[in-house]
Amino acid sequence: MIAGPSGAGKTTLARHLVETFPEAVFSVSCTTRPPRGSERDGVDYRFVSDDEFSGLVASSHFLEWAEVHGNRYGTSGEWVRNTLAAGGSVVLDIDVQGALQVKSAVPAAVLVFVLPPDPAELGRRLSGRGTDSGETVSKRLSAAAREVALLGAFDYFMVNDSPGSSRLRIESIYRAERMRMAAQSWPREALPYHAGAGSGLSAWKGKKVVVCSGPTREGMDDVRFISNRSSGLMGLSMVNAFLDAGALVTMISGPCRYDAPPGSVPLIRVETAHEMLAALREAVAVADLLVMAAAVGDYRPKVCTPGKLRRGEGFLLELEPTPDLLVSLDAPCPVLSFSLEYGPDYRERALEKMLKKGSFAVFVNRGDVPGQGMESQTNCGELIFADGSSAQVAGGSKRFIALAIAGLLGERL
Ligand code: ADP
Ligand code: 5GP
């Protein structure tokens, strides 16, 4: 997303990206503003009436929309999702409020804020464009101060001074972001280094997989909660692994730092164990596999006090158990569960839990061994199947471990 005040050079930079990178596609926004200069309908904007725009808002057509300088502008959600799912990079020329709306809906989106070298130059560029009246130019200049106030919420800042160096800056951001692991599938070139890794992955093509991830939160009052140290990274890694394998993935996630990859994954956000159970009931009805990588809290405060509990002398917090999700769910599809265990008899306890929960397989890892479990970037462990067979999963990044687990499961199912 390229944002910044009107006249900063967003359109010029967005067009440059689209002309330079074959997979980059410009998002044609809807607007209620009339066409200006040589603008063409369907190329620069989709020009719509006020009533048409209201209809599109009512039918949830927009990923975001905003009123900018007296007109409404909006981005088509379905088009963005489809383009991302097909491997494209979506380039948005967008106002500052709209960019922040997209960031909260799609946290992996990249925000670039552009400014000319100084306000006088911004004025010259707005007037020099020769498409806006004096009144429009001064309206847009006075909006710039309000827009710059939101700059701190962006990922990148660049000055648009000379055209040549600005093109290099925006290209550098684009190139670096495309190489981020979070933005791509597992590199094909990295697979042959791990003998046998992911050989069963092809079994997942077109299959429906539900991944449940992250911790749960149980409120004490409207401000405080009890939770656990799950970062959500193992769940997100499982989502990526099944996506890489060509599965259709739905993600259910408790509140955590890691979010669904952009585009092709429906994300259902939940907070409590009860909410997670309700979301699971709906999602697993048509699933081919449930991956239960969430760390569901076993207890919740018996009472959640409205408002904020006052600081005092201390008090007793009474807890009650939450439901065992897999037991309550009795999923109609095979289940892969995760078991984090401490102490020497960790394997027996994992097996016992797997049988109680009726899982098809359990991935057991240890909380008392460095480099495994919650809050770690890496993991290793053992995948144990209900028929008693098992496979060791050697250490690596969680993203790689997830690929190995998905491959091993694919060989069995
Ligand atoms: P925005 O999309 O942010 O409103 P534009 O891309 O339409 O801005 O640019 C505003 C005007 O400034 C245009 O006339 C454009 O040709 C010109 N412009 C863009 N980048 C530069 C630059 N680096 N130096 C000088 N003029 C520029
Ligand atoms: P202009 O009328 O100069 O083409 O655009 C005015 C402003 O609207 C610019 O800041 C531009 O980035 C922004 N804009 C264009 N399309 C969209 C959109 O789909 N959503 C939002 N929120 N802003 C947009």
Describe this structure in words.
By secondary structure, this protein is an alpha/beta fold. It has 2 domains: 2-179, P-loop containing nucleotide triphosphate hydrolases (Rossmann fold, 3-Layer(aba) Sandwich); 187-302 and 318-412, 3-Layer(aba) Sandwich (Rossmann fold), CATH 3.40.50.10300. Helices cover 33% and strands 23% of the residues. It contains 12 helices and 21 strands. The protein has helices spanning 10-20, 50-58, 77-85, 96-105, 119-128, 134-148, 163-179, 233-244, 273-284, 325-329, 346-357, 398-412, and strands spanning 2-3, 24-26, 29-31, 45-47, 62-68, 71-76, 89-91, 112-115, 156-159, 208-213, 218-219, 225-226, 248-253, 267-269, 289-292, 299-301, 319-321, 335-341, 361-366, 378-385, 390-397. The protein has an 8-stranded mixed β-sheet with strand order 14-13-10-15-18-19-20-21, sandwiched between helices. β5 (62-68) and β6 (71-76) form a beta hairpin. α8 (233-244) packs across α12. The longest helix is centred in the middle third of the chain and has 17 residues, at 163-179. It is globular and about 75 Å long. Bound molecules: adenosine-5'-diphosphate (ADP) and guanosine-5'-monophosphate (5GP). Guanosine-5'-monophosphate (5GP) binds at residues 6, 10, 29, 33, 64, 66, 68-69, 73-75, 93-95, 98.
